Amino acid sequence: MMRFSTLIKHPADWMTGGNVDNSIVLTSRIRLARNLAHHPFPGWARKEQRQEVMGLLQPAVESLSVMKDCFSKQLSDLDSVHKQVMVERHLISREHAARGEGSAAVIERRQSFAIMINEEDHLRMQAIRPGLDLQQAFSTLSDLDDKLADEVEYAFDGRLGYLTTCPTNLGTGMRASAMLHLPALVLSDQIGQVLQAVNKIGLAVRGIFGEGSESLGHLFQISNQSTLGESEQEILDRLIRVISQVEKNERYAREKLLEEDPDMVRDKVGRAYGMLRHAWLISSKEALEHVSMIRLGVDLGAFPEDTARICDELLMDIQPAHLQLHSGRKLSPEERDVIRGEIVRSRLQSLEAPDTGSLENQNNGEIPPPDLGLA
Prior knowledge:
Elements: H1 4-7, H2 13-16, E1 25-34, H3 47-62, E2 71-74, H4 80-88, H5 94-97, E3 104-107, E4 113-117, E5 123-130, H6 134-149, E6 156-157, E7 161-162, E8 174-181, H7 183-187, H8 191-200, E9 203-206, E10 219-224, H9 232-260, H10 262-278, H11 284-299, H12 307-317, H13 320-327, H14 333-347
Antiparallel strand pairs: 1-5, 1-8, 2-3, 3-4, 4-5, 6-7, 8-10, 9-10
Helix pairs in contact: 4-13, 9-10, 10-11, 11-12, 13-14
Catalytic activity: L-arginyl-[protein] + ATP = N(omega)-phospho-L-arginyl-[protein] + ADP + H(+)
Pfam families: ATP-gua_Ptrans
Domain Phosphagen kinase C-terminal: 24-253
């Protein structure tokens, strides 16, 4: 089995884009909720019953070929910092991190698959891929799900589909989502209109860490809300269509900003560069906002393309638990701000000032208007 230190030593492909375009759609994630037949669901189970389910599921997941050399641990064997690091890496949920005996996490060595045992349901399985690649994420996770179904019996009803703790997950048990970087829609004050349109057609919009979290660094998570009465493919098709349209709206907003207010864009990108290159104390929220502007600058040609990878790594590495793991000790908020500043300055020390001449609209034709209806 893989050690925790080995797991987090290198960022996953989905964190840094791999070889796909992730300038707007950073990642695609599919999550499946499953429960075992003839066993009480986690919220109603006694500790002994939860441990029994964990004893059945953990070795079954570990035995899957895709999980060779995986990381596998009971949560009661991990300290709070290790669990929070996995939350920050989107490998387990905040709710799962709060659980103790009878819960476990099994994570594929490249972090493309992560399995939570005894979270809200007996199984919460996820696949993450870089860019807009929901179809492939679903295909690979569905294959894993089928193989696991050969080993254990799922709680399934012919009329309702997969039975889950929360009624909103009944049916397919699937949540599909994408993480989008939408700074231009925020700067142009269009984000509210776009997100309202997304909500009207039955999709959910959340912050960087999912339900109940705020949007930081202009990052938004868009996902399906209903899982009953539709097939997985119908859910995916609608979500892909909407996310593609939001991506077009963001692209349009970036072009429009350069056309109408290039000085504002230069100022935002230049200030972000100055702050990150020279700040000695910087909070997580402030750092994420500035990293977002650097990332935008990369897409607009103000910085070399490989700067995007540095930004994507920083999105994880400047989070509080990552800083504590890096330091090897518990840190006060003030100490975290100091170390965060050190890490950011170090990573960006060779980054030259932005090429402000590139921050002007290159589109010589008419910019097509966005479709805010998202039909």
